[in-house]
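$ fold --in a.seq
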Amino acid sequence: MNNHATVNEILVRLFANILDIEEKCLKVGEFSDLSISEMHVIENIGYSDERTMSDTAKTLKVTSGTLTTAVDNLIKKGYVERRRSAEDRRVVKIRLTEKGKAAFKSHEDFHKDLVTSALQQLNSHEEEVLIKVLSDIDVFFNEKYNFV
């Protein structure tokens, strides 16, 4: 197998495995009523106290209609609150409820555990090489696909 095929196979498998692990952990955990996409909306909102719907949709690379549907479901489930801005009634702001903050923290802990588990297999030099390679790949994808 050539290097291109090997890298492709590894990346595809890693992405699929991480999503699969996330999904399995969600289904058995305290927040089993959430889908992966809902958890990613919660994750995006959780990095700030309050966000606008338009900024959140832009960051998640979804339409405002898609985000509205997701937020409606998250409101029904008790994870998110929505309100209109007092300064500009056209602006809709969203934030996590206490339940949403707990889900966000749980997801953050999941990612920390995932990284810790992966890194404990490596020595410090291997960690540095991995970080350099992943950073280079990240920069490449951002430049090639205009993610910046």
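$ fold --in b.seq
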Amino acid sequence: MTLLVVVDATPYGPVPSGARRRAEALLPRLARARPDAVFEVHWARDGGGPGPACTGDRLVHATDDVSCRGGAWRLWRRARALRRRHREAPYGHLLVDHGPVVVPDRVRTVVTVHDLRFLHGYGGRLRALYGRARYGAVLRRAAVVVAVSDAVRDELSSAYGLRDVVVARNAAEAPFSPAARADAAAVAARLGARAPYVLVVGRDEPRKALRAAVAAWREARARAPDLGLVLAGAAGLAVEGAVVFPSLGDGDLAALYAGASWTMVPSRYEGFSLPVAESLACGTPVVASDVAAHRALVADGATGVVLVPPPAADAADAWPGAADVLLGARPALVAPPRSTWDDAAAVVAARL
């Protein structure tokens, strides 16, 4: 008997994100791990669709007439569409990110939780209200709740009393590997990034605290004038003396990781933090904020991470202690956490 697994990928926008990277890494692996299933993946009309690696014999992609930025409107539209889809062609499994959960008495819904940012003041008032008033009920209706890290699992237990959360950790894979070092110099020269430099990867939003990383670099450069800064993914952020890329392909990003002296990750809150894992996989150490997600990566075997207290919310232009790390000796051992995307796919596939 062939299982039909409907995957709601409509929350994913066209810009790179940890959630999108996870979906594109797991879906082909899930299709291989479950040869008895067909995966019908629904994307938003403005979500950019699947990446080139998100293909497989049992992966079928469809575009829905909703926006990835639709918020509550998108959730309502998706719930209605999924109920109709169930009537048209009954399916046994639904993979979603933050909901909706539909016909739970007939559909086995697997909800992936990437983070709980709305409980920490990030994501807007409506999302915070939904997170506090409704999200726990949504999760309790699901057949399986999957967390992307031990930190998210622990937070789900604390915030909502969930006890049976499954952990399928995020990971880093090729081209994020030591092999990227072979192309580091050529890519840096082509992109105008002159070594030595430190790298910051992420969107310019309050919880990522990119401006605190910029402040730490400026403090370090006062003592090491040749130290450059490269910002990747920070669309709209202009920094004098820095090289800024709104978007980069994975190959170029991996080469920039490999060529950097350090990667800075100053986030005030994370669910997992792929830049930490990706940088370590390329052999480059990380100065990271001392938050639960980063401590969980160290517990999972990551080496080469120096933890510094996170930037204060009311001091966006300072990250005390980070500059001293940038100017100090690099760790002798650098390695990513032990988890792999294959491990994550096996965990999820076993719960379908």
